[in-house]
Amino acid sequence: MSVSTQTDSATAPQPRTLMIDTPEGMARAHVYAGQPGSGAAPARAPQGAVILGHGAGPSITTVDLVAARDALVAAGWTVVIVEQPWLVAGKKIAPRPKVLDAAWVPIVATLRAEALADVTGPLVVGGRSAGARVACRNAATVGADGVLALSFPFHPPGKPAASRGEELLAPLQHGIPVVVVQGENDPFGTPEELTAYLDEVGGAAAGELRPALSAVPGTHTIPPRAREAIAQAVVAGLEHLRGHAPKPPTPESR
Question: What is the pLDDT of residue 250?
């Protein structure tokens, strides 16, 4: 895979931007170095790396992605926000899941070998909505230590029978813990619906592991007033995840 880099001129947090070649075209990754002790976070050692993908909408600046990014960077995590090739190419409609997966796997591999090569601690993959589905489907393939799912689309609106629960449970079947942050009134699946599903099949499908689920204000589109709730949920969720990661990563295993 070929990688080129450039520096954004945006205000803090300041990312480094990489262009990554994939079988589906060029992807763009924005790498935000962890800042232990910045903001309201106490000084602490670097926590690990988090790679997040966007949803089916053409934006990486949704409230939940930005709030999660900023909170995790302040808590010491190195965060990467990935733009899938279809978004980089200026398309308005996301491609099929298998196309997203075909780009995501080499993106993560390239990031691990290049931008994140010197980052110690767990590797968490995740994203918002469709990006969360991609991360869940491929968590074991990319060797992730955990998954962060924001606004997981548990089912299409009005079609609860068309469950995507198997995707949410897929990482757990490989011993990979999952953290879910869901809008209280999400038409794609409320926290109550997710809890009921997990009560019914979660134990049988995923052994002793169960997703750590947090509810925040909002629907599938998270409002600005939920920023603080998201920040608290993702930092606490990943702290929980660190205690349940399947193995302690080492530089050699990267």
Answer: 43
Q: Tokens 């548990």 belong to which residue?
A: 154
Give the C-alpha separation, 23 to 20, whole Å: 10
Q: What per-residue string of b and e applies to 30-55 under the rule 16 or more CB within 10 Å gives b?
A: bbbbbbbeeeebeeeebbbbbbbbbb
pLDDT score of 153: 97
**Helix, strand or coil, per DSSP, at residue 17:** strand
What separation in angstroms does the CA of 62 have from each of 15, 116, 129, 222? 17, 24, 11, 8
Would residue 15 count as lying in a domain?
A: no
Q: Which domain holds residue 36?
A: 31-248
| Residue 248's pLDDT band (cuts 50, 70, 90) | very low
Q: How many domains does the chain have?
A: 1
What residue type is 141 in one-letter code?
T
Q: Which CATH number characterizes residue 201's domain?
A: 3.40.50.1820
pLDDT tens by residue, 134-148: 999 999 999 999 999
